[in-house]
Each structure stands twice: as structure tokens, then as C-alpha cells.
Specification:
The chain has 434 residues and is α+β, with helices and mostly antiparallel strands. Helices cover 65% and strands 8% of the residues. It folds into 2 domains: 2-173, no CATH class; 175-365, Aldehyde Oxidoreductase, domain 3, CATH 3.90.1170. The strands form 2 sheets. A 6-stranded mixed β-sheet has the order 1-8-9-4-6-2, with helices on one face. It has a 3-stranded antiparallel β-sheet with strand order 5-3-7.
Length: 434
């Protein structure tokens, strides 16, 4: 039991570490620090001097010149990394206050900013080691000439990285790019799910099952499938998940079903591989993409922001994503190589997701004709793709809700007539389709 909890904590910590803003900076900085020791060693055994002699125009063998150069470089890099960290914090604060704090994990986990920070910090470590070896080498030359040249080269690399960082950070703070990034990430995950051929409609369980309650609280995001599949095959274990991905699971809730009695070994396997976290990463759970786009639209329509253009763009992206989500029908079944089921996920909650997204946006858009018309278009387009009328009643209820909310809030008769005409057209098109 203790070992299972320890492994679970390690896996959970591993997920958090690799998505941390300090992960790549630490790896790159430590690598350049190790490189500095290796390069200084080459200078000590005079290999570095032999290399530099072939490009003598780069040679700096005067101790005072080398020390002044490295000191200036080190001072500039420290100022650079301070400014870079300040820019990151400003961007994160801006995103949190203007859009949604749930966007932070996805922004922080971006590799580009982490690599830039890592290179600059690594160059500081490298330059510090080289500077400490000027006039302190035990034999021969007083300046590690090869190390000085590498420090200069890394300084130029850091400068170019900083220019790239300024360009990247100025683009990332633009709401259009944030929306596009969320959309593309969610779209790619949905496409991957659609191409997996793992979804089965009308799945029926024929075996008796044992209910397993949640052993911890947190958002159910993912399962370490490769490890679980390998170990569950030996046990003949089949796992059914009762909660949708992204839902918050309270300790003691009915969470899982298995086809065997719950033994200590099975309990350890579940606790090691079913991860409950408190972060919202779209690449692990595509439903977070719908949630983030909805939150941005709601925030944009709030009186403090009042940016209907952003809300319309978010609704357009939701329209495309809902059309893709609609193709994922039934339940996702992960199988062993021999075709036997291993992990059975809960049914795709299309109707619940669709309702919650539109219900969140609708109250804030009731006075805005443009946003209301875009919501009607969204419902109409998704309804057109529902060829089997699986969600007919849902779409009709949403159209009725939009009409009811608009008529209660709108004061202009012209606006009311415009919305009524759009609603009538949407209903007529749906009837014609059927």
C-alpha cells in the first residue's frame, strides 16, 4: 500500500515537473554548467589552445582583456535574465486578469520560453566558471582561451534567443493567438481521438463488476495506459471508468468498476496509474479546450472587458470543435493486442458539454445582437451535421432559451425582430433537413 502511494506520488510529481516553467531551464543550465567544466579541462590540458590556434583571430590571451570581457558579458546576462523573468510574470498576470487563470498551465508549459530562459541561465553558469579560471590555471597559459571563445559564442546565442523571446511573448499575449492556440491544440487532440478507432457505440457490459471508490480527491485527467495495459494483462483485469475526464472526483465517490474482486495488488495498480490532478492541460484532456474557450468568451462579454469580437471568435472555434466532438460517439475502449477490452471510458458527454458552454455564454450575450446571432448560427450548423437527429431536442431547447433570454433583455424592437427572424430561419432549415 505504501509503495503504491509512493509510485502514484512520483508519477503525479513527474507530470507536474515536466510541465513546470523551471523544468527545461534547469536541464539546459545544468548541461551548460557541465559543459563549462569539460571545456575548461580541455584548456588545462592545452587541447583548447591547439584548437584556437587554428582560428587565431578569435584568440584572447590577455588576462585583463578576458576578465573585462567576461565580466561585462556576465553583468549583461544577469540583467537579461531578470528582464526575461519579469516579462514572463507580466504576461502571466495579464492573461490571468484579462482572460482566465485556467490558461496559465498551458502557457507555462510552452517549451519556447523555457528554452530561452534555460540558455540564458546556462550561459551565466558557463561564463561564471570560465571567469573563475582566468589567471588561476595551474600551469602554462593564464587564460582559458577556448572557454572564453565559447562564452562569447553563447553570449551571442543568448542575445538572439532574447530577440526571439520578445517576438514570441508579444505574440502570445495577443488574445487572438491565445484563442488560436487553444483551438489548434484541442482540434489536434480531437482528430487524434477520431483517428484512433477506439470508440464503440452501444457498449454493453455482460460481466459482473466490483465498484471501486475514489481513494483521493482531484480532477480525473488521464491513465498511464501503457503501464496499466501491460500489468493488467497479467491479471486479466478490465477497468470501467464511471467519471468523465476532467470531472472533479471527491474521495469516497463511486469512481471505477473492475471485473474482479478488489485485492491489494489490483488496488496498488489502480492507485499507481489512475492520476487525479489539479491542473487543466488540454493535451491531456480535450474537454478543457471547450472550457477555456467558453471562459474567455464569458470574460470578454463581462462589463469590465466588453469585447464582443473576442467572444465571437471563441464561439466560431467552439462551432468547429463541437462538429468534431459530435463524431466521437459511444465509449472509448482501449484494448490489448489480442482485442480484449482493457480500459472502458465513460460515454462522451456531448450534450452536457454543449449545454454548459452555451448556457455560460448566453446570459452575458442576451443584449448583444451580433453574439446572439453567432450562437444561433453555431446551433444551426451543428444541427445540420446531426444527420441521425441524436441531439434534436437539445438544439431546439437551446434555440428556445436564446429566444426567451433575448426577448426579456432586449429593448429595441428592431433587435427582437432580427433575432426572431434568425431563429425562424434556423428552425426552418432544420425541419427542411429532416
Amino acid at each position: 500500500m505504501y509503495i503504491a502511494k509512493l509510485r502514484y506520488s512520483i508519477k503525479k510529481a513527474y507530470k507536474q515537473v515536466i510541465n513546470s516553467i523551471s523544468f527545461y531551464p534547469f536541464i539546459i543550465a545544468f548541461s551548460l554548467l557541465a559543459l563549462s567544466w569539460g571545456v575548461v579541462y580541455l584548456d588545462n590540458i592545452k587541447v583548447g589552445k591547439a584548437i584556437i590556434n587554428k582560428v587565431s583571430f578569435l584568440r584572447i590571451d590577455n588576462p585583463n582583456t578576458a576578465r573585462s570581457l567576461l565580466s561585462s558579458l556576465l553583468t549583461g546576462l544577469i540583467s537579461l535574465v531578470t528582464f526575461t523573468f519579469s516579462m514572463v510574470m507580466i504576461v502571466l498576470t495579464q492573461v490571468m486578469s484579462s482572460f482566465s487563470p485556467r490558461l496559465l498551465p498551458n502557457l507555462v508549459s510552452k517549451k519556447g520560453n523555457q528554452v530561452v530562459l534555460g540558455i540564458i541561465m546556462g550561459t551565466i553558469c558557463f561564463t561564471t566558471i570560465v571567469l573563475s579560471n582566468v589567471q588561476t590555471m595551474p600551469t602554462g597559459q593564464k587564460v582559458p582561451v577556448f572557454s572564453v571563445v565559447i562564452s562569447m559564442f553563447l553570449g551571442f546565442v543568448s542575445l538572439f534567443c532574447f530577440i526571439y523571446f520578445i517576438h514570441k511573448i508579444s505574440n502570445e499575449i495577443q488574445i487572438g493567438n491565445i484563442l488560436n492556440d487553444i483551438y489548434r491544440t484541442t482540434r489536434d487532440v480531437l482528430n487524434r481521438e477520431s483517428d484512433s478507432n477506439c470508440y464503440v457505440e452501444n457498449w454493453a457490459e455482460n460481466e459482473t463488476s466490483v465498484l471501486v471508490k475514489a481513494w483521493d480527491s482531484g480532477h480525473f485527467d488521464t491513465i498511464t495506459e501503457k503501464v496499466f495495459i501491460r500489468k493488467s494483462k497479467k491479471m486479466g483485469l478490465k477497468l470501467s471508468i464511471l467519471k468523465n475526464q476532467g470531472m472533479y472526483v471527491l474521495k469516497g465517490d463511486s469512481f471505477l468498476k473492475i471485473n474482479q474482486p478488489l485485492t491489494a495488488a489490483i488496488k496498488n495498480l489502480l492507485e499507481e496509474n489512475v492520476l487525479l490532478r489539479h491542473q487543466e492541460l488540454i493535451r491531456d484532456n480535450y474537454f478543457y479546450g471547450f472550457k477555456h474557450l467558453t471562459e474567455i468568451a464569458v470574460k470578454a462579454l463581462s462589463p469590465g472587458i466588453n469585447d464582443p469580437g473576442t467572444a465571437i471568435q471563441a464561439i466560431d472555434y467552439l462551432m468547429d470543435l463541437f462538429s468534431r466532438l459530435q463524431t466521437l460517439r459511444g465509449q472509448k475502449i482501449i484494448r490489448h493486442k489480442d482485442g480484449t477490452p482493457c480500459i472502458i471510458y465513460a460515454p462522451v458527454p456531448f450534450e452536457e458539454t454543449f449545454y454548459l458552454c452555451l448556457a455560460s455564454i448566453r446570459p452575458y450575450s442576451s443584449e448583444d445582437v451580433t453574439v446572439q446571432s453567432r450562437l444561433i448560427t453555431l446551433i444551426s450548423k451543428i444541427s445540420e451535421q446531426d444527420e441521425e437527429d441524436l441531439h434534436k431536442s437539445l438544439f431546439e431547447k437551446e434555440l428556445n432559451s436564446i429566444e426567451e433570454a433575448s426577448m426579456q433583455v432586449m429593448k429595441s424592437q428592431e433587435d427582437m425582430q432580427f433575432i426572431k427572424a434568425l431563429l425562424q430561419k434556423a428552425r426552418a432549415e432544420n425541419l427542411t433537413k429532416r
